[in-house]
Write a structure and sequence with these properties.
Largest sheet: 5 strands, antiparallel
Order of helices and strands: HHHHEHEEEEEEEEEEHHHHEEEEEEEEHH
Shape: globular
Length: 382
């Protein structure tokens, strides 16, 4: 038999090669199942591996973008099976709003459709959301982190806690106290404040009634500032009492009256001082204002165009109007944002009257200048 020519194109057997070594990954590396083109083409997005879907979902939870999480959870049965349902995990704090504020509904609500404007202060993202469920209850208060505290319209007006981003409504047994106007939430426990009685009310879902505690005027004023400023959420329990005691001792060292310091009255003479308590993760910030000039820590918020670094923005009350001022912490200069008043007082509330379009400074100052009355309190007064 003739030998094959030297240029025979028939391939020879593949040579033996050493096995590839698996690259070592760090402990935080997430293994994901491979998605082959055939699998992706056959099943579409629903064929994504469960661990990859969960990784995407966790990225939304990390930024507290709960509305995005809920959209992902609702895509298809396989994605719902791969991710946790907030309705079945009401005590899971991953699904609690933490960085959201509900902007003034009297300014931004459209007609009667209960479409509100929400802001994620951690990312700078705005969200318009229709909340028709609010028609079925009295709105008692909105918390600094984004919950609604509601009351049944029928007596005895049992409390409800509504998460506007997940749609979860937690039912409480206890009726809402008649004078409650300010609220916060810590670990699914509602904290309500009654200005007329100087009482602080706390309750958990299955309690028969609110636990009420009376406070002296100075301590109540501080407690109210801490709740409104969001500090109570970060420093609560036994540690909160220690923080209060240290702050009061500090104020006495600089000859400041704690009762007057934490009141909501306007500034008086040049020696007058007001303090505001602001909550940050793992911190409590005390902002002191003397004769209209604030002193404290500034934070650069490049996610909010128009807001300068190392500056504090606040509203200066001028009787029936108010304007926005800026204080530069670096050069200690105070500046009025606009000579014309941005707010006018109407029915005990300051209403934004400046020409549109509003800036982010207008929006945030409008959020801080008013605390809306409880609909339950207004109904009982009528």
């Amino acid at each position: 038999m003739a030998a094959a020519p030297a240029d025979d194109p028939t391939p020879s057997a593949a040579p033996d090669l050493p096995l590839a070594k698996k690259k070592k990954r760090g402990p935080s590396y997430l293994e994901t199942s491979p998605v082959t083109p055939a699998t992706a083409a056959a099943g579409g997005w629903s064929s994504l591996p469960d661990d990859l879907v969960r990784r995407i979902a966790d990225s939304f939870l990390a930024t507290n973008d709960l509305d995005h999480y809920m959209c992902l959870h609702a895509v298809c049965p396989s994605w719902r099976a791969a991710t946790d349902d907030p309705k079945n995990n009401t005590y899971d704090t991953r699904f609690y709003p933490r960085t959201w504020i509900i902007l003034d509904e009297q300014v931004f609500q459209r007609d009667d459709d209960h479409e509100l404007l929400l802001l994620n202060v951690g990312t700078g993202r705005f969200l318009r959301k229709k909340l028709p469920l609010l028609r079925e209850y009295y709105i008692v208060a909105a918390t600094p982190n984004g919950f609604f505290v509601l009351a049944d319209r029928s007596p005895p007006h049992a409390a409800r806690l509504f998460n506007p981003l997940t749609g979860v409504l937690t039912c409480f047994v206890a009726p809402v106290p008649p004078d409650a106007t300010v609220a916060n939430v810590a670990s699914l426990a509602i904290v309500l404040l009654g200005d007329s009685s100087r009482k602080v009310y706390t309750v958990v879902p299955h309690s028969e009634g609110f636990n009420a505690r009376d406070y002296q005027q100075g301590l109540y004023n501080f407690f109210r500032k801490a709740v409104v400023g969001g500090a109570y959420l970060h420093v609560s329990g036994a540690a909160f009492g220690d923080v209060v005691a240290k702050l009061f001792d500090l104020l006495r060292l600089v000859y400041v009256d704690p009762v007057k310091c934490f009141s909501s009255d306007y500034l008086g003479d040049a020696n007058d001082v007001r303090c505001f308590v602001v909550g940050l993760p793992a911190h409590m910030l005390l902002v002191m204002i003397t004769c209209g000039s604030p002193c404290g820590q500034g934070e650069h918020r490049d996610r909010f165009p128009g807001i300068e670094a190392n500056c504090l923005y606040y509203t200066e009350h001028l009787g029936s109007s108010a304007r926005i001022c800026k204080y530069n912490l670096k050069d200690c200069k105070e500046e009025v944002i606009s000579e014309a008043a941005e707010f006018m007082k109407q029915d005990k509330q300051f209403v934004l009257v400046t020409d549109r379009p509003f800036t982010i400074i207008h929006l945030l100052c409008s959020y801080t200048i008013n605390i809306l009355d409880s609909q339950l309190v207004l109904q009982q007064k009528s």
